[in-house]
Specification:
Layout (H helix, E strand, L loop, with lengths): L12 H12 L12 E8 L6 E9 L2 E4 L5 E3 L8 E2 L6 E2 L5 H11 L2 H8 L4 H12 L4 H15 L4 H16 L7 H16 L3 H10 L11 H22 L13 H8 L1 H8 L9 H6 L3 H13 L3
Antiparallel strand pairs: 1-2, 3-4, 5-6
């Protein structure tokens, strides 16, 4: 799910640096990319009428994604959601008057207020609202919450808790091999199990995902999506087999992003960034592949090297 909301300005410089760290990992670009733009708007909380300022997203560029589905691009992902400062209600979509009436006891209830007081992420709170409403977007909101948690602290307790909650939710849902959304959720859950280090379960779930010949319909776009998920599942088998928990296995992030990873030691030296992780033995070997080398040459040429 990609909600059309902007990035909040009120989290502080440290939070911004943490969120941008992952995107900087892929910042050795081989093509011009547009900067993200935001504009300030006034929001009104639908329950208590509270007014607050919010930076709405105007435009953003995307050039890839991680295996967990989080886009990579010119700004922070997942796209920030507006949140009422007092009661903590997350405005992940528009709510009509009857829905607002249904939500009043939920938002003001002890359970939601406890989550807000505990500073759970906005997408996690949005997931709880969606779950109360029976909104089919609920699993996707929870998946986005896992991105928020991993952006803040990849190996933290919150990231693990959200990841486990996402896996549990997906496994509780019926699987329909004719529906691309059902296939996608299972595939992301398999990857989540891999990131959690539950490799046998990850492989069992991955290998059990069947994609029906007519999944998504008969249109060309549906065929491309079916093939895309088949390719994803085939690639996912590799880091599962080698028991890799990394969020960005080099053989699952695309040639452009892989080449950027191969050049990360060079960009780290230029930026005097001592936190950039060294290349692993697998990554060193992968970087020698001819298609990756071609991409590296193209990146260096674009950057005037």
């Amino acid at each position: 799910m990609a909600a059309e909301k902007g990035q909040d300005a009120g989290r502080g410089a440290d939070g911004v640096r943490r969120r941008l760290a992952l995107l900087a990992f892929f910042a050795f670009s081989a093509a011009p990319v547009g900067a993200s733009t935001y504009f300030e708007v006034e929001k009104v909380c639908p329950i208590d009428g509270e007014k607050f300022s919010f930076l709405e997203l105007g435009s953003i560029s995307q050039w890839g994604s991680l295996p967990d589905g989080m886009p990579l691009g010119s700004g922070y992902f997942p796209i920030q959601l507006a949140q009422c400062p007092k009661n903590g209600m997350v405005l992940y979509r528009d709510f009509d008057a009857p829905t607002i009436q249904r939500l009043k006891p939920v938002i003001k209830g002890e359970a939601y207020q406890a989550l807000y007081a505990a500073e759970e992420t906005r997408y996690f709170l949005a997931y709880h609202i969606a779950r109360e409403l029976g909104d089919p977007d609920a699993p996707w909101l929870l998946l986005s919450a896992t991105w928020e948690a991993k952006n803040e602290e990849p190996a933290g307790a919150r990231a693990r808790r959200y990841g486990e909650a996402f896996v549990t939710l997906v496994q509780s849902l019926p699987f329909d091999p004719t529906r691309l959304d059902s296939i996608a959720l299972r595939a992301r859950a398999s990857n989540a199990l891999r990131e959690l280090g539950r490799f046998e379960e990850a492989e069992a779930l991955r290998s059990a995902i069947h994609i029906a010949p007519d999944a998504g319909g008969q249109e060309q776009e549906a065929e491309e999506n079916r093939q895309g998920w088949k390719n994803y599942l085939a690639r996912l088998a590799l880091p599962i087999a080698r028991r890799e928990q990394s969020r960005a296995p080099i053989d699952m992030i695309g040639n452009r992003e892989a080449a950027a990873r191969c050049l990360s030691h060079e960009t780290a030296e230029k930026r005097k960034d001592e936190t950039s992780p060294p290349l692993t033995e697998l990554e060193v070997s992968f970087c020698k592949a001819s298609d990756i080398q071609k991409e590296i040459v193209r990146m260096r040429a674009f950057n005037g090297e």
